[in-house]
């Protein structure tokens, strides 16, 4: 299947470079390009892409607010957002994940890594790496609003164990190995946890694990 990609960045040359890269992949196509956050939201509504590559700093609406609007719209439920950031805007990553983004990349990432990230997020996974990502999220989560309906108190003991491992950036196979479960059973647990917490994807599970205190800074 062809992955339909919407590119949102206020720099024309950057959009053009990303477009050339995406179009070079046999399994992807660019269905639209936006220079502002507002255009990104409007094009998402018109084109219903599989994924939006979203810059954070844009005029009219920034990428975080545009992501929030896309994630909140029921008709765009299947649209995933992959945000772009720079090393000096780390705090924006957490805000983007709270807003509904499924992952993030820095702008100097390698071309092949960007294409792999698009495939990962478009497939319904979250682009969260162990260690650095978890520590980054822990650093900026202090007393923010809880982004999902519910908390770990509604989970079983096993589900809490699974959630703690997901918050460390482990995938289903790694979660299963850590708990003596099959990857399929681990995946089932993760899906059930997302349902109970009202989380959009694994990225929001990481956020709620820190916000609830289930995982604390220094434990990953």
TrEMBL record:
PROSITE patterns: HTH_LUXR_2 (PS50043), RESPONSE_REGULATORY (PS50110)
Xref: SUPFAM superfamilies: C-terminal effector domain of the bipartite response regulators, CheY-like
Superkingdom assignment: Bacteria
Entry coiled-coil feature ranges: none
Alphabetical GO biological process terms: phosphorelay signal transduction system; regulation of DNA-templated transcription
Any Pfam family matching the protein: Response_reg
Domain Response regulatory: 4-122
Tagged with keyword Protein biosynthesis: no
PTM sites of type 4-aspartylphosphate: 55
InterPro entries referenced in this protein's UniProt entry, alphabetically: CheY-like_superfamily, NreC/VraR/RcsB-like_REC, Sig_transdc_resp-reg_C-effctor, Sig_transdc_resp-reg_receiver, Tscrpt_reg_LuxR_C, WalR-like
Residues covered by the HTH luxR-type domain: 148-213
SMART domains: HTH_LUXR, REC
CDD domains the record matches: LuxR_C_like, REC_NarL-like
Record has Ion transport as a keyword: no
Keyword entries, A-Z: DNA-binding, Phosphoprotein, Transcription, Transcription regulation
GO molecular function (one): DNA binding
Protein name: Response regulator transcription factor
């Amino acid at each position: 299947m062809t992955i339909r990609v919407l590119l949102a960045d206020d720099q024309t040359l950057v959009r053009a470079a990303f477009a050339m890269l995406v179009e070079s992949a046999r399994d992807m196509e660019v269905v639209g390009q936006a220079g502002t956050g507002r255009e990104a939201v409007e094009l998402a509504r018109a084109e219903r892409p599989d994924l939006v590559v979203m810059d954070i700093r844009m005029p009219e609406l920034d990428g975080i607010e545009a992501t929030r609007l896309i994630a909140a719209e029921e008709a765009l439920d299947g649209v995933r957002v992959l945000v772009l950031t720079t090393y000096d805007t780390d705090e924006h990553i957490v805000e983007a994940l709270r807003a509904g983004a499924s992952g993030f990349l820095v702008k100097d990432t390698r071309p092949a890594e960007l294409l792999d990230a698009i495939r990962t997020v478009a497939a319904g996974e979250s682009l969260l790496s162990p260690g650095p990502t978890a520590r980054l999220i822990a650093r900026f989560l202090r007393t923010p609003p809880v982004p999902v309906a519910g908390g770990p108190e509604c989970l079983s003991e096993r589900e809490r164990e699974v959630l703690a491992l997901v918050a460390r950036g482990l995938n289903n196979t790694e979660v299963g190995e850590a708990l003596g479960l099959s990857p399929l059973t681990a995946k089932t647990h993760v899906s059930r946890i997302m349902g109970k917490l009202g989380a959009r994807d694994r990225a929001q599970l990481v956020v709620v694990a820190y916000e609830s205190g289930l995982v604390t800074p220094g434990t990953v």
